[in-house]
Structures are given as C-alpha cells and as structure tokens.
Design brief:
- This protein is α/β, with parallel strands linked by helices and 210 residues long.
- 32% of the residues lie in helices and 31% in strands.
- The chain has 6 helices and 13 strands.
- Strands 1, 4, 5, 6, 7, 8, 9, 10 and 11 form a 9-stranded mixed sheet that branches. Strands 2-3 form a two-stranded antiparallel ribbon.
- Helix 1 runs antiparallel to helix 2.
- The longest helix has 19 residues.
- The radius of gyration is 18 Å and the shape is globular.
- The protein starts with a strand and ends with a helix.
C-alpha cells in the first residue's frame, strides 16, 4: 500500500504559491512566503498528533481540556533549501527538535551522497517530518527517508511546497509507508530536472544566491 499524498486544498496556500512562482517576487517576500506556507502545511501534517486531557482553571471554573500527549516530534530539513521551511514548522510545534541532512549528487553515479547529518539523540523515538521545498526527481528525499530509517525512525512524513509526479512515484515505490504533504502537484519535470511550471531553484530564491 502506498503512502497517501495530501495536497493542500486551501485558498491561502494556493494564493501564496502563485506569488512564490512569480519570478519578480523578491528574496525577502519569497523567504517569508516559504515559511508561511510551511506553517500552513504543518497544520495538516500534524492532524494525527495524539491528544490527552488535563485539568485547567478558566476565569469561570475548572474544566478538563485537550492537550498534546507529548509525543516527541522532529523536523529534518534537507540542506540547504529545506532550511527555509523550518521556521514555519517551529512556529506551529515550538518544542520540536531539529535534525539536519546535507546531500549532494555524485556526478558519476548521479546518486545522492550524505555529507552532513546531525540528529537529536532520541530521534528514533520521534515522529519525523522531513522538509524540502521541491520534490522533483525524488532522489534526495528518498535518500533522506532511507537515512532516517537507518536511525530507527518508524513514523516519517515528507513535506514539500511543490511536487512533480515523477518524485511522488519514486517515494511511493521506495518508501510506501511515508505520507507526502504538498502545496500542489505540478505537471512534470523538464530535461534539466526542474519542476514545470514550478518556481525555479528554491534554494537560490530563498537565500538570494542567483
């Protein structure tokens, strides 16, 4: 059974993605929008967090009210573009720990190679949300999920702003247990591996390096 693909059906996400796509959008606005959309998608990606109850005293009376059960949570950006989504996630789940995975593509084999990895010590006990703005070929995301499984993680989700059908297909083939949360699914990849219509190179646009 393949993991589900959750596409955000929300006017705010749709509007903000359209502004992101515009090549005239400034670095400052692009960065802020990435964080805002990340926050909105996190709202959906955390829908199944377990709840318990505790007693609180309102100005009127005592009552029993829902509260998060304290299930441990970690957000793991794929460097470097994934960093743009971390702030939005942390605004929704302030107690989350942050791990980092750095990947580059070997020019000979074209396979993703891990050059940096730093995780919370208890990451295997945590629900893990891997974040990257774009799911294009799916190679990096698939490798990152594989690395997290090597750490012993069993509850992993992937959150992206835009996905290509090719990337979704690879994740579902290699990691059928992982749900994907995305702002939109675009048409295809072009010859250079960019999502069409997409938004260009997310890392360059977040950090202003082009």
């Amino acid at each position: 059974m393949n993991g589900k693909v959750h596409i955000m059906d929300h006017p705010l996400v749709a509007h903000k993605l359209t502004v992101l796509r515009d090549k005239e959008t400034s670095v400052k606005d692009f960065r802020e929008l990435v964080s805002e959309i990340g926050m909105l998608i996190t709202y959906e990606a955390t829908r199944d967090l377990p709840l318990t109850t505790r007693e609180v005293e309102t100005p009127i009376c005592k009552t029993t009210a829902p509260t998060l059960k304290g299930k441990k949570f970690a957000v793991v950006p794929i460097l470097r573009a994934g960093l743009g989504l971390v702030d939005g996630v942390l605004r929704m789940v302030p107690s989350a720990r942050v791990g980092h995975i750095g990947l580059y593509r070997d020019e000979t084999t074209l396979e993703p190679v891990k050059y940096f990895c730093k995780m919370p010590k208890d990451v295997a006990e945590r629900d893990v949300l891997i974040v990257d703005p774009m799911l294009a070929t799916g190679g990096s995301a698939s490798a990152a999920i594989g690395f997290m499984k090597e750490y012993g993680c069993t509850n992993i989700k992937l959150m992206v702003l835009l996905a290509a059908p090719e990337g979704i297909e690879l994740i579902q083939k290699n990691h059928p247990d992982v749900d994907i949360y995305c702002g939109a699914v675009d048409e295809k990849l072009n010859e250079a591996g960019y999502i069409v219509p997409g938004l260009g190179d997310a890392g360059d646009r977040i950090f202003g390096t082009k």
